[in-house]
Design a protein that fits this description.
Helix content is 47%, strand content 10%. The longest helix has 23 residues. It has 338 residues and is α/β, with parallel strands linked by helices. A hairpin with a 6-residue loop joins strand 7 and strand 8.
């Protein structure tokens, strides 16, 4: 998902408390996908209620959002709208990958290959309309606002940061930088311990901030050139140039200045190049949103999670108590929001 330019970028490790009082625009689809991928049982099966409905994302929203709200962060989820036409091929390929992963998951599970099964189970994760609707319902009950983007959620979130309505974007992807977000925080909603593939080793995963200007200055390029690098490597909207990775793309951009010059020298072509650039430079965004944080409606949260999805009422109640718990001096974190 997204463009693979991470190896070019410097990032600064932080604690969640370093973002206290910051408004963080959360890339909703990216984050929900992470919840669905990571929050699973040992055999790879996602969490489900007694009706067979997947609930991993709801668990992620309740407990991970409680953690960051406790730290003073003001989250706002930004949901994708209609994808650009150029993304159609990527969407079709992802669907094919998920279907193949489902088949391989079933085969690995039947053979008793636990680690293989878990890997393919993760790859089969899908954010569907039901998951989105349930997520909206829980966010509303928890008092956390969300914004509907007209198209790409990261583009809308980047616009909100540039506009000053948010301080940074939370996403695992790097596309937010291409859309012009001054700062992006990774691992905010997935921090903790993570097992390395094929190894019985767990590593700490901590939040890290990537500053756009700092990185552009360090690399000696402009944002437009960073977009050119991404297009060379391949984005959600194009295949990229064969055999060209991030470091090679950076070298080419430094040598030739623009992607047009690179293509001329190499005798290659990227169809619709200007349209690709415009998707990042002038994406479809909206001002039709309002950011208001409210106190959680405990009864609605309990009714939705416990009554409809079989969550433990004791655990949910404790999470709600944490949401409203004092952060010091007798004043709750939530009190500071109003």
């Amino acid at each position: 998902m997204g463009v693979d330019i991470g190896e070019l970028l410097k990032r600064s490790e932080i604690g969640v408390s370093d973002l206290s009082s910051d408004v963080v625009a959360i890339d909703a689809f990216n984050t929900l996908y992470q919840f669905l991928s990571i929050i699973r049982q040992r055999d790879g099966t996602p969490l489900k209620d007694s009706q067979g409905n997947v609930t991993s994302h709801l668990s992620g929203i309740l407990y991970r959002m409680t953690n960051i709200v406790e730290a003073g962060v003001k989250p706002v989820f930004v949901f994708d709208g209609k994808p650009p036409d150029l993304k159609l091929q990527t969407i079709l390929k992802r669907t094919e990958v998920r279907e193949n992963a489902k088949i391989k998951y079933a085969e690995a599970k039947e053979k008793g290959l636990a680690e293989e099964a878990y890997k393919y189970a993760q790859a089969s994760s899908r954010v569907d309309a039901t998951i989105v609707e349930d997520s909206r319902c829980l966010l509303t009950a928890m008092g956390i606002p969300f914004v509907d983007a007209p198209s790409e959620g990261e583009a809308q979130a980047a616009y909100m940061v540039r506009k000053g309505d948010a301080d940074l974007i939370a996403s695992q992807d790097y596309d937010s930088l291409l859309f012009g977000s001054p700062r992006v925080v990774r691992n905010l909603t997935v921090s903790g311990k993570r097992k390395l593939p094929k190894k019985n080793i767990y590593v700490d995963v901590k939040p890290e901030v990537i500053d756009l200007k700092e990185n552009l200055d360090e690399l000696g390029i402009t944002r437009s050139q960073l977009i050119d690098i991404a297009i060379c490597v391949g984005t959600d909207y194009n295949e990229g140039l064969e055999g060209v990775g991030p470091k090679t793309a950076l070298k080419l951009v430094r040598e030739h200045g623009t992607l047009e010059n690179i293509l001329a020298v190499k005798g290659m072509d990227i169809p619709g190049l200007e349209e690709l650039r415009e998707l990042f430079l002038s994406p479809s965004v909206t001002d039709d949103y309002s950011l208001k944080w409210k106190r959680p409606d405990n009864d609605k949260v309990i009714s939705f999670l416990c009554g409809e999805h079989d969550f433990s009422e004791d655990r949910v109640t404790k999470a709600l108590e944490r949401l409203e718990a004092s952060s010091g001096g007798g004043q709750s974190t939530l009190d500071k929001w109003f």
